[in-house]
Amino acid sequence: MPRFGVILAAAGQSSRFQDANYKKPFAPLAGRPVWLHSAEKFIDRDDVKQVVVVVSPEDRQSFVEKFGASLAFMGITLAEGGTQRADSVRKGLEKLTDDIDMVAIHDAARPCIATAWIDRVFAAGVRTGAAILAIPVVGTLKRVAADHTITETVDRTGLWEAQTPQVFARDLLTRAFAAHQEGQATDEASVVERLGHPVTVVQGSPINLKITCREDLKLAEQALKALPPAKLGGPAHPFADGDLWR
Fold it and tell me: Rounded to an integer, what distance in angstroms lies between the CA atom of residue 201 and that of residue 117?
C-alpha cells in the first residue's frame, strides 16, 4: 500500500476573511476550528501515515498553546510556513518522514471534503503520479478592467476550477519544487506542470468549497451536514464544543 503524507496548508494571511478574531483556518465551524474538520478526514485513513499542518511563524506559539494537546493526540506534525504558498508547502515536505512515498496537499480552509473524493484522487495520484480534484466551470466568465468594466467574455470550454487534495508522487513533487523559480504559484499542480509532467483531473464537487470570506462559514456548516460523519478510533476526542482559538 502506498504511504501517504498529507500537508494541510494553513499559513495564509486570510486577508479576504476580514475577521478581527480569527484567520479562516482557525475560525469556529460547527463547534470546532475549520482546520480540525479538514484534518479529521485524513488522520483515520490506513494509507495516511503522517499529517503535517503548516502555519505561519506569527501563529505558531498561539497554535501550540491552544491545540498542542490535540496535535499530540492525533500524531500531527507542525511546520512553519513561508511568505508564499510554495514556500509553505516546501516547508511541509521537509517535515515528512523518509518512508512517505505519496504526498497530498489540502487547504486547511477546505473542510467539506468527503472520503469518496479523497479515495478517487488518491487512486489517480498513485496511478499517474499527479492528480487533483477539480470541477468544471459552469458560470459565464468576464474579464474586467480596473474601472470595473467588462473587457472580454471568456470562453469556459475546457476550463476547470482546481480544488484540493492535490496528490503527487513524492519524488516528482520534490523535483518540481527544486526546479521552481521564485514567484507566485497558486497551487502545487502548476509547479508540477512546469516540469512537463501531465496532471490528471478528478472531478470533485462544489460542496468541497474553500472558505474565503466569513459568509462561507454558513455555507460550510450546511455542507458538513450533507457529508458522512468522521469516525475517529481510540479514546474520546480532546476537543469539546466551543474549544476554539480566539
Answer: 12
